[in-house]
Amino acid sequence: MTGFLALVFGVLSFNAFIANDLGRQESGNRVIAMLTDLYGWLLSTIGAVPSGVLFAVCAVGIVVLAARDGRQSS
């Protein structure tokens, strides 16, 4: 699960850095539509590069927290 979340945030970070607006796509799923609207809002509010940095920090943070948690339980 950690790897999946880190991968998702990594892809979102890459898409933000190349200014790929996921909000232009249509989805019949309400949750997906809500998430793409949120992503588009974030890009338009703080910009593509800061959004990319934010998502990259989230991806690294998830991996670091998972690694720290794994070491404590051993």
Produce the secondary structure layout.
Blueprint: H1 2-17, H2 30-46, H3 48-73
Helix pairs in contact: 1-3, 2-3
Largest sheet: none
DSSP strand (E) fraction? under 5%
Helix fraction by DSSP (H/I, runs of at least 4): over 70%
Shape: globular
Radius of gyration: 14 Å
Secondary-structure content class: mainly alpha
Pattern of helices and strands = HHH
Alpha plus pi helix count? 3
Give the gist of this structure.
The chain has three helices and no strands. Helices cover 80% and strands 0% of the residues.
Polypeptide structure, described:
With 74 residues, this protein is an all-alpha fold. It has helices spanning 2-17, 30-46, 48-73. The protein contains three helices and no strands.
List keywords for this structure.
0% strand, globular, 74 residues, 3 helices, mainly alpha
